[in-house]
C-alpha cells in the first residue's frame, strides 16, 4: 500500500526530519524560528528585507526576545539559516506565515502581505507540505484566502498539502513567558491537518491547545485582544470621569484589585500601542458587516482609546496654562518614552508618536527621550518624524523644557533626578506615585 502524503509528512515531523520555513522574521517570526530550531528542526527564515539578512549573517539579533548568543547558537548548529530567496520554500515541509496584517487608512483589513506571501508559496508548492498562517486576522482568512490561493495551483488541501492556523501570542518585554512556554492554539483544515499541527507545534512548545477549525482559532486571537482593548477603554474612560470628580483612578484600581474574585486590574494610559490591541479588533468589526451585525462595544472601545492622546495633550496644555502661565504653542515639551510599552524598543502604533504630532499641530515643540530608541525609524503614518534622535536626559537639558510628559515608564529612567530637574511633569503612567515621588509639580493625566 502506498504511503500517503499525510503519513510521510507526519513521520518527518515526528522524527524531526522536516524542514520548517518561517516567512517574516520580525517580532513574531524570528522568536518562533528560534523555538522551532531549538526543538531539533532545521529552519529556513525568509524575509524581503535585506538589512535583516545582514544582521543575521553577523549573528546580530534585532529582536529583544532573541539574544545574539541564542541566534549564533542555532546558526552554528546549522539549524537556522536566513534568505531573501523564496525559491527555498520548495525544500520546506512546514511553511509558517508571520507577516504584518495592518489596517488601511480607512481602518479596513490590509491583507496584501498575506496574499502576496500566499502567492509566493503557491509558486513553490508541492505535495506533502503543511502551510500555517500565524498572522492575526478575521475568521475565514486561512480557508478563504490562503487555501484558495494555494489550491489555484491544482493541488488540493487535505490530500496534496495541508493548511492550518495558529495565532501568535508574542508579548515583547515579557520576562516570564517566551515562545516555547506560551500555550499554542492550533487548528487545521480537516483532521489530518490538525494532527500535523499538533505534532509540529507540540514538538516546539510546552502546551498545545487544539480547536475545531481555523476560523475558531482566528477568533481566539481576536477575542484575546478585544478583551484587553475593551477593558483598557473602560479604565481610560473612568480616568476622565474620576478626574473631573477629583478622584485618583489609580488609587481606585489599587483598592479594587484587593478583591480576590470577580475583578482583574487594567490600567489607563496615553493611548494604545503595539500591533495587536489598536488594530486587531477592527478586523472583527470589518468582518461583522458581512453578517449585518453591529459591533458597537468594540468600536466604542476603539474610539475611547484613540481619543486618549488628545485628552493627554489637553491636560498638558491646561497644566502649562495654570502652572506656568504659558500657552502650549510657545512651549517646549520632552516626551519620555517612544516605545509603546516599558523596557522594549517596539514603537509600533505607539501613542507617543501621536502625542508628538498633536503637540506640534498645536504649535508646540516636542522632543523625546527613550533609552531603547536612539532614532525614530521610518513609519507608515509618521514620516515627518523619521530621523529624530533621542534627547539627552541631563539635569541641564531637562530644565530647559517647559514640561516633561511621561508616556512610557521605562525602568531605566532616573525618575528621582527627573523630579528634581523638571519644572512641570505630566504623568500618564502613575510612575511617580508608585515610586513615592509625588510632588506638587507632578500632574497625573
Topology diagram in text:
Blueprint lengths: L4 H10 L4 E5 L5 H10 L3 E5 L3 H8 L10 H9 L3 E4 L10 E4 L14 H11 L7 E4 L7 H11 L10 E4 L18 E5 L2 H14 L3 E3 L3 H31 L4 H8 L19 H4 L1 H8 L7 H29 L7 E5 L14 H11 L3 E5 L25 H5 L3 E4 L8 H7 L3 E3 L3 H4 L7 E3 L1
Helix pairs in contact: 1-7, 5-6, 8-12, 12-13
GO molecular function: NAD binding; oxidoreductase activity, acting on the CH-CH group of donors, NAD or NADP as acceptor; oxidoreductase activity, acting on the CH-OH group of donors, NAD or NADP as acceptor
Keywords: NAD, Oxidoreductase, Plasmid
Pfam families: UDPG_MGDP_dh, UDPG_MGDP_dh_C, UDPG_MGDP_dh_N
Structure description:
- With 445 residues, the chain is of the alpha/beta class.
- It has two domains: 3-211, Rossmann fold, CATH 3.40.50.720; 226-442, Rossmann fold, CATH 3.40.50.720.
- It is built from 16 helices and 13 strands.
- It has helices at 5-14, 29-38, 50-57, 68-76, 112-122, 141-151, 191-204, 214-244, 249-256, 276-279, 281-288, 296-324, 351-361, 395-399, 415-421, 431-434, and strands at 19-23, 42-46, 80-83, 94-97, 130-133, 162-165, 184-188, 208-210, 332-336, 365-369, 403-406, 425-427, 442-444.
- The strands form two sheets. It has an eight-stranded mixed beta sheet, with helices on both faces. Strands 10-9-11-12-13 form a five-stranded parallel beta sheet, with helices on one face.
- Strand 9 (332-336), helix 13 (351-361) and strand 10 (365-369) form a beta-alpha-beta unit.
- The longest helix is centred in the middle third of the chain and has 31 residues, at 214-244.
- The protein is elongated, with a radius of gyration of 24 Å.
Amino acid at each position: 500500500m502506498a504511503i500517503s502524503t499525510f503519513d510521510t509528512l507526519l513521520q518527518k515531523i515526528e522524527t524531526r526530519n522536516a524542514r520548517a520555513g518561517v516567512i517574516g522574521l520580525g517580532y513574531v517570526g524570528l522568536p518562533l524560528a528560534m523555538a522551532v530550531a531549538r526543538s531539533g528542526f532545521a529552519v529556513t527564515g525568509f524575509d524581503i528585507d535585506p538589512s535583516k539578512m545582514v544582521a543575521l549573517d553577523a549573528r546580530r539579533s534585532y529582536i529583544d526576545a532573541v539574544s545574539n548568543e541564542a541566534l549564533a547558537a542555532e546558526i552554528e548548529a546549522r539549524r537556522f539559516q536566513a534568505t531573501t530567496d523564496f525559491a527555498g520554500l520548495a525544500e520546506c515541509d512546514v511553511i509558517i506565515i508571520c507577516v504584518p496584517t495592518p489596517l488601511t487608512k480607512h481602518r479596513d483589513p490590509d491583507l496584501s502581505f498575506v496574499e502576496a506571501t500566499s502567492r509566493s508559496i503557491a509558486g513553490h508548492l508541492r505535495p506533502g507540505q503543511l502551510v500555517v498562517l500565524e498572522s492575526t486576522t478575521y475568521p475565514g482568512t486561512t480557508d478563504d484566502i490562503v487555501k484558495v490561493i494555494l489550491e489555484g495551483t491544482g493541488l488540493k488541501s487535505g490530500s496534496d498539502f495541508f493548511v492550518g492556523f495558529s495565532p501568535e501570542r508574542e508579548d515583547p518585554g515579557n520576562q516570564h513567558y517566551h515562545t516555547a512556554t506560551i500555550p499554542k492554539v492550533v487548528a487545521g483544515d480537516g483532521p489530518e491537518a490538525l494532527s500535523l499541527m499538533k505534532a509540529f507545534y507540540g514538538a516546539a512548545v510546552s502546551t498545545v491547545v487544539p480547536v475545531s477549525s481555523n476560523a475558531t482559532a482566528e477568533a481566539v486571537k481576536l477575542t484575546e485582544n478585544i478583551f484587553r482593548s475593551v477593558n483598557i477603554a473602560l479604565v481610560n474612560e473612568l480616568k476622565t470621569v474620576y478626574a473631573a470628580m477629583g478622584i485618583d483612578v489609580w488609587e481606585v484600581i489599587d483598592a479594587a484589585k484587593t478583591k480576590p474574585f470577580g475583578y482583574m486590574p487594567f490600567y489607563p494610559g496615553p493611548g494604545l500601542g503595539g500591533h495587536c490591541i489598536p488594530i486587531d479588533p477592527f478586523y472583527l468589526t470589518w468582518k461583522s458587516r458581512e453578517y449585518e451585525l453591529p459591533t458597537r462595544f468594540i468600536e466604542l472601545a476603539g474610539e475611547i482609546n484613540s481619543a486618549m492622546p488628545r485628552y493627554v495633550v489637553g491636560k498638558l496644555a491646561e497644566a502649562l496654562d495654570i502652572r506656568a502661565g504659558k500657552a502650549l504653542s510657545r512651549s517646549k515639551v520632552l516626551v519620555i518614552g517612544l516605545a509603546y510599552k516599558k523596557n522594549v524598543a517596539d514603537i509600533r502604533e505607539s501613542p507617543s508618536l501621536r502625542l508628538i504630532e498633536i503637540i506640534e499641530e498645536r504649535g508646540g515643540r516636542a522632543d523625546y527621550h527613550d533609552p531603547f530608541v536612539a532614532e525614530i525609524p521610518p513609519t507608515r503614518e509618521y514620516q515627518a518624524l523619521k530621523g529624530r534622535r533621542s534627547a539627552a536626559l541631563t539635569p541641564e537639558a531637562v530644565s530647559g523644557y517647559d514640561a516633561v510628559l511621561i508616556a512610557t515608564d521605562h525602568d531605566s529612567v532616573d525618575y528621582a533626578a527627573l523630579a528634581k530637574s523638571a519644572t512641570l511633569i505630566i504623568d500618564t503612567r502613575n510612575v511617580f506615585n508608585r515610586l513615592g515621588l509625588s510632588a506638587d509639580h507632578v500632574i497625573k493625566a
